[in-house]
Amino acid sequence: MTKAMWSPGETQHEDREYRGFASFDDPEALSYVDSNGNPNFALIQQTDEFRSLRRRLTMFIFPMTVLFLASYLTFVLLSAYARDIVSIKVIGLINLGILLGLGQFVTSIIITLGYARYAKRRLDPQRKLLAEKTGVEE
Amino acid sequence: MPTTGNPVLNLSVFAVFVLITLYIVYRASSRNVTASDYYAAGSSFTGAQNGVALSGDFLSAASFLGISGGIAAHGYDGFLYSVGWVVAWLVGLLLIAEGLRNTGRFTVGDVLAFRMKQRPVRAAAANATLVISFFYMIAQMAGAGGLIALLLNVTSKTGQALLIAVVGMVMVFYVLVGGMKGTTWVQIIKAVLLLLCVTLMSIFLLGKFGFSLSAIMQQATENNKLGEAVLDPGAKYGFSTMSKLDFVSLALSLVLGIASLPHVLMRFYTVPNASEARRSVVWATWTMVIFYLCTLVIGFGAMALVGTDTIAAAPGGENSAAPLLAFRIGGAVLLGIVSAVAFATILAVVAGLTLAASASFAHDVYANVIKRGNAEPRREIRVARWTAVVVGALSIIGGIAANGQNVAFLVSLALALAASANLSTILYTIFWRRFNTTGTLWSIYGGLGSCLTLIIFSPVMSGAKTSIFPDVDFAWFPLGNPGLVSIPFSFLCGFLATIFSKQEPENAGKAAEMEVRAISGIGART
What percent of chain B is modeled with pLDDT above 90? Predict the structure, then answer.
């Protein structure tokens, strides 16, 4: 597919296809794909399966992003503005700041693995449901 | 001191390595026929292969030479780079990788222009890619020059300039021959070698000090002028209000910029599906965590065994910490190996960068803006190759100008540019329905323009004795890294421009398609 190279007229073309499929006598199972075999994205966007997938995705990624950015910025701001605290020696010469920094490594691993697991359990099955309903595969 | 072994031996280890990789590139690329093969390796790599290649894009000269050097010279303040590099992967994993891969094909422009007016947005995306890649390339060139200067013990500036030029030409040659598939294989091979190299060095160092990081630090503090204070924040960034802000600004650019770099974004296209894209980021994260843990050990190890003053006096300055440490613990052979790996690292990263830059020009500007989508693929590839030559030549000149600066620091400028121009725009376009062409152009040019302006008028360019142009002074912006200002500014530009311009109802179909594709992967590869 050459998606990167449409001509300006193509959008209108797809709109016409869309109207064509709104007619009542078309079987519903077919309506997610137009006569050229292209997915009808506007209809897919309205399905419960898609909405649920989008909700599941955003429910994970945005809170996690806030979480890791907050944790990283805590490390950075403490290093810049609370130097007495991060300079406290904890293990031998290793101070609290180095440990906080290494803590970021640990949270990064946890979030990465957490996301991989979440995607496998909650996102991929939902994608499969959507693909089954619409008859459109990746 | 320091003699760095026998230049002939160093050079032979390294020449053998270069020839082997060139051979691999040649073999891998013998079936480089379509544009998709050239730019995205026909999307044929598995998640694991791609993940290692992805980390290869990041385990660059900046990471290996610059960060270990930064830690060896400034202790705690250098360690910030390690942390930033690791955490930045989460931005790529959670926010960018899958959506980008599902909606784009070869370049950043594919995604940004997806539901916008094609020509202006593609041109803007290509401009941003070229500027960012140019800054990133300068750092790699400077790193390569310093490294070879150290190997051959070349101390004159003219000699080093000549080395940078030769090294640069070898690298451009790689891209011309290899394309994305060749580049990916070089990335994979060199990432594995580099990882082995740093891991073994770290284990050796830890073993030497009874597996105690504290013991390494103990000896390190004895070889640094600051003593124990080098383990606390402030060795590089000092204690003034502005220097603290500079520290925060650098931290922000690191975490937001890395996953916004064009050549990293492009790497997400070389996998066959979204779950492989995800898998590749998971792989990359593991590789990264191990690698950056090692930089901590190697950095303090170099401070302990070589000493900060010796490092600063060597050709290549701070960037020489890791090779000097290798020489100290393993003699000429280990120096030869470490240098060869570091060189291959730079080579591969530059190849990836040149490719990203040339793809964005050939694919976005030539094929879609100039030829309006009707370019013949063979001609498009030819344009890509010529762009590679031009970008290579420009960055050789830039690299000569920036010779001697810490490469991790130089890279942080490219990161600030990437975060300013790309991150806001990509996030808006994937996650905000209302976002439109006006908003896209404002957030790209607003971010890129403000960032570039602030870099030019910062102490990095002029006014201080560590500046690129130390003899003149036109600096009025106090921070060395502009990210703290320019990144929020680009988000604001994109937001305001979208709010105050009218919606583009004619693009509703495209917007629906983009959202469905980005989130579900439907229709991404048909």
Answer: 18
